[in-house]
Sequence to fold (441 residues):
Amino acid sequence: VKTSLCLLWVSSILSAPVNKERQKLLLISFDGFRWDYDRDVDTPNLDKMAKDGVKALYVTPPYLTVTSPTHFTLLTGRYIENHGVIHNMWFNTATTEKKPYYPTQFVNDWWDNGTLPIWITAQRQGLKAGSLHFPGTASSYQGQVAMVREIEPPLYNYKNETVWQDNTDKVMGWFKYQDLDFVSMYFGEPDGTGHKYGPDSPERREMVKQVDRTVGYIRQSAELHGLDNSLNIIITADHGMSTVYRNNQVEAITLYKIPGFSFKDLSFHLVDYGPSGMLLPKPGLLEKVYNALKGAHPHLHVYKKEEMPARLHFAKNDRILPIILWADPGYVINGVLQSNKGEHGFDNENMDMKPFFRAVGPAFRRNLEVEPFETVNIYPLMCHILGIQPEVNDGHLTATKHMLVTSEAPQGQVTITFCLHPKSLSSLLQDSNGIDHYVLQ
Ligand SMILES: *[C@@H]1O[C@H](CO)[C@@H](O)[C@H](O)[C@H]1NC(C)=O
Ligand SMILES: *[C@@H]1O[C@H](CO)[C@@H](O)[C@H](O)[C@H]1NC(C)=O
Ligand SMILES: [Zn+2]
Fold:
């Protein structure tokens, strides 16, 4: 009894918010902005932002590297197998029904699967949160929604720069006139252009210039709204983009042509979706399907769910199907045929899948380039800046906290008398966030 009492007391100290001044935070995602997109384009505004704040060389998204799952990781700090939004597409294996990205935004049960996004957590702790177009915005979570929100209409033009500027001013107005503390904001580019023309195309470089101009516009709008001293801005993305080799350059992966494999052996499949696929074989046919595909193509990886590499954190969820496929960079998995020149959805170790990361504002240090980190760690950083208690998550504040100005760190030392064996004490300290020094007595 004594030990557990002490533990309770310690954890409430370790997790207490340390910053006293209220900080606002804007989380921005430019879909598919690969970490190195600023290397072959002049990006004066992104460069200025790095000088005024923090830049990571790159960040590592969770696997599966597609839009809705990775964005929900930004909002929750959980790996995809833990938050449950395992794909852009909602599906029902019993009826074989599937919904594309946009209609899936409105399938409440798909999103509200036990993990709370930061908007809801912030609001439960007395803050005000908003969201514009960010994946997950349309859903409610345990009956609650972001208090100010805007969802893009169907057939939305994700590329219009004038609309990007109007949306920016709208969000700054939310901070200024409705006194919101946190807003997430989404731009659908340069993903669309990267898919259509490929990441090495002149069209993609032009779109990066548009993103850069918009970054300048965002910072200017924040200044004009008088938000410089309170607003922190994080700009990142959900995944990168990789060139798909043309069918006459390489031997394409085309499932229906693989000897011994038949779609008739499946009750349900999700393929023709870039380099990733999931299959549900009919009862009794798992081994047959698996054996037909395993080793069938040198650039096709075939895994039973329970054999998935643990580092991918993409297995332990009932929604993930029994056979998981992915292709090496350059390749996609064709059920029949695909035509994009750029794709994502590859292994998150692949450099082409890494997004960029920039942050600026009163909480952040200036002119600092940090080492790469996983995007699960952005969530605890955001909670820390906002001064809210995070939900259970897979991130660690220790991975991102060094970006913050020292006044954000705990003041002075915390002295704790432990009633624990030293061994359990050291594991406790490794797991704890938000504390710099330990004095053992
Ligand atoms: C998550 O969704 C699955 C169905 O896909 C359902 O069985 C499960 O109960 C849901 N869990 C929660 C906590 O909503
Ligand atoms: C972009 O949006 C503005 C403002 O809504 C509109 O006037 C303009 O026609 C749009 N441009 C394109 C190319 O769609
Ligand atoms: Zn995306």
Notes: DSSP finds 13 helices and 22 strands in the chain. Residues 147 and 329 are 40 Å apart (CA to CA).
